[in-house]
Amino acid sequence: MHILKKVWLSYLLKCLSNRLISTDALINNLQRMKNKFLLLGIALATLSACKTASSASSMQIANVRTQKNISINNELKNDEEFVKIIEPYKLKLDKEMNQKISHTNTDLTKQGDNSNLGNLLADYTFDGADVWAKKNLQKNVDAALINIGGIRTTIGKGDILLKSVFEVMPFENEVIIVKMKGSDLQGLFDYYAEHQVNNPVSHLYIETNNKQLTKALINGKAINPDQDYYLATSDYLALGGDNMKFFSKGEMIPTGMKLRDLFIDYFKKNSEVVSNTDVRLNFIGKK
Description:
Blueprint: H1 2-17, H2 23-31, H3 33-54, H4 80-97, E1 100-104, H5 116-136, E2 143-145, E3 158-161, H6 162-168, E4 174-181, H7 186-195, E5 201-202, E6 204-209, E7 212-218, E8 221-222, E9 228-234, H8 235-238, E10 251-258, H9 259-269, E11 281-284
Parallel strand pairs: 2-9, 6-11
Antiparallel strand pairs: 1-3, 2-5, 4-9, 4-10, 6-7, 7-8
Helix pairs in contact: 1-2, 1-4, 2-4, 5-9
């Protein structure tokens, strides 16, 4: 079990150095480590018991005794040895995570069909993917869409810290460009008409009336069914997440860019965030 502790600690330190987990998450992991290894021990004992039970027909079970239950709760003491080991890494990570990367004069939230934070991050997705496509595909990105569920929290008025972006986007999602025929985009518009969901978009305008599509524009223009369109999104959505099955009709082009890294870069490029509140999703008659 001591070896398992070392292995788990090594894994946590690797996550820390690669910024795969936040400081608080790391400390919580360490504080719960004792509990986790106790649970692991129980699990291993259970597996061992199952294996023994499978050959019970050739063995006699004897000396069965009732053991004391141990509650897994906050009353178990922290392992101070592990807390001391992680402390210098925590201080280093705190310093990095608390650095200011931008500023906003207004709260950035995910509320409403055209939230200022949703629009902002959809625009950052579009801009970053467009730069990549121009360089690697010699093509322009036509539009972008992300999912509101992937935006995990809001950003309050004032300084935007590096950790703020990690809190907003804790996932390791990558930017994917999906090449689609204009005729296949009907599935995208039908999706928004049916679900009336506020998944943020950029360079797209979708209007519905009582769940019936009334207008769909890309860059202010009607869809050409014979044209190839390049849409930027996340790997999660491109693979059908949030029931976006319409992407399956397109060709997926990986960029190798992490959404969170892209957001961080664009926050750093803009010392003062100017959020867009223009109407992109117009669900008339939405209940």
